[in-house]
Amino acid sequence: MSFFISADSLMYYEHYECPAKGAKTLVMIHGAGLNSTFWQSIVPLLEWRYSILLYDLSGHGQSSEGHTDISWELLTGELHALLRSLRLDRVTLLGHDFGAHLAVQFALTYGSMVESLILISPFAHLPLTSLHKEYKLRASLAKKTARQTLGEAMAKRMSVKHKDAVLTQRIVQAFERAHSPTYVQMVELAAKPVFLKDYLVLQKPVLLLSGEQDPVFTPALAGLTHAQLETTGFLVVPDASSLVFVDQPIYAADWIDAFSRKPLSGQRNNAINRELRQHVQQLTKQGYEHWSGNRIRIRCLGKFEVCLNDRIVPGGWNTRYAKSLMIYLAFHPTATREQLCEALFPEVEHPNAMRNLRVYLSHFSKLLETNDTDKPCLTIGRDVVKLHYLVDCDVMEFLNDLQQVSAEQDSEVKYGLCEDLLSRLSGKFMPGCYDPFSLSLKEKIEQLWEGITLWAADYCMLTERGGQAVPFLLSGLQHGLADETLYYDRLIAIYQKSGNAKELRKWVRKKRNSSPPSCEEQL
Predict the structure, then answer these.
(1) Is the distance from CB of 28 to CB of 54 less than 8 angstroms?
(2) 96 has which bridge partners?
């Protein structure tokens, strides 16, 4: 057991020195939320041939929290200082999850010290919305829920052995020990879409390991990553999830050993692989360009605001259906004139609607004029209207998240996501939007939110945290469409149990006033 002082933090590490002459050194870097103890499943299988260095990242395991601002420069600098203190000048980096991303960043900065890399279930960065949601989910759970909940959720994602109570408890305890702000910063840092670009300039021998049942770094995703890189080996570990070295330690150790002794097979640069690599790289490049291109950001929760890239578009949205056109095109970036007329003003006779639409589109296009780029934000053809910029719309994201929460089966995870949704709400849904499409969208959101607020309140009451149910019930009253007495009854029950007579009288009175008078009262 050893500690190393780096800057203002204390770093815990273990160094197993192999007595064999000329033994290589494997540096094992754990994932965000975990700690170095999880590598112990394979240390005994490798220490006879390799020297092994384990350490706990800042804010994890036995290392101190240390820093308020996490960056690649900070983390790679800490590892570099540790290697220098141990006089290690040539190593193989073995990283899992966030640790795999850190290994790549270290190799980019201190390339002369890195012989090769073994990356297990790394954070992958293709322009996929589902990947972005996964990383967002992890950060949201860390911010809004108990770390035990986060640990339990991650145990199910990370290991096929998550039904083993001992292993799940180890994972939960690791997440409970991890410093939440540090964990969130690490997830947000690694989720930035630069990882694959880093790979392409790395030019180091790399082994990718993917668990057969990994729900995030799936075998298909690992294979796609592998196809783009000339110096990469690839293995799908059967009957394993993200923690392949815990689920299948012997299998994982054998491949780590084989790769470390002979990093490249020499079969990666044939004609088929070269052509495939060029095609996949081009497709991925196009995806990145689309993902990181010009954006139009639309805010509809609480207030209405439109930004072209980073420039706020000023007033003019409350006239000539501009706001309605903007919201419709956010959901349908390409639409015909007929579709716009049917969606926004179906009650107007078709010839008049088409004439009016020409005026509305002229006004709308002037609002979206920009000199920022050569590419226009909007084109209006004879029949088709097309929005070219990528759309970030908070109400669209909120709707997608509502649907995700409604489908979630794990109650604690679901509750954590409910807390995140609640924190994002302020003011009204889509204020000032009265066209049929917007009203239908608003009603759909309100119906979903109604069900979620009632579920969250009931879950709070079931788990003896009635006070946490109140904000959900108040939000449901503000935004929901349900019978108000459903909320009044729950609030009354909460204040009866807590003994808050003032609030109890208030909600009993509101319920009484909301109820229709009985026949006797009418007489």
Answers:
(1) yes
(2) 120
